[in-house]
Amino acid sequence: MKKQYYSDMARVAAMTDSEATRNALDDPDAQPLDSAFMRKAVTRIRRPGQAPEPCALVALDPDVAAFFGKQQDCSAAVNAVLRRYLEGEKV
Prior knowledge:
The protein is an all-alpha fold. It has one domain (9-89). It has five helices and no strands.
């Protein structure tokens, strides 16, 4: 069975590299990643059979979400506050 493409592959194949690059840059959803993005990027490799990291979806009040949303790493900030609370409860 021949693979079905949803793009005009003949048109794509006929483009020069510069034309393809210009077309990609014209798409606001396909912008290049800058060095700031790459500095924050994290590679996560899960070994075969390794369980995924546990995660939870938590509903927050709008003001709480707005506060933590301003943090550079929102998840880490929420986790740190919850960790401090949990450790305080052990006393």
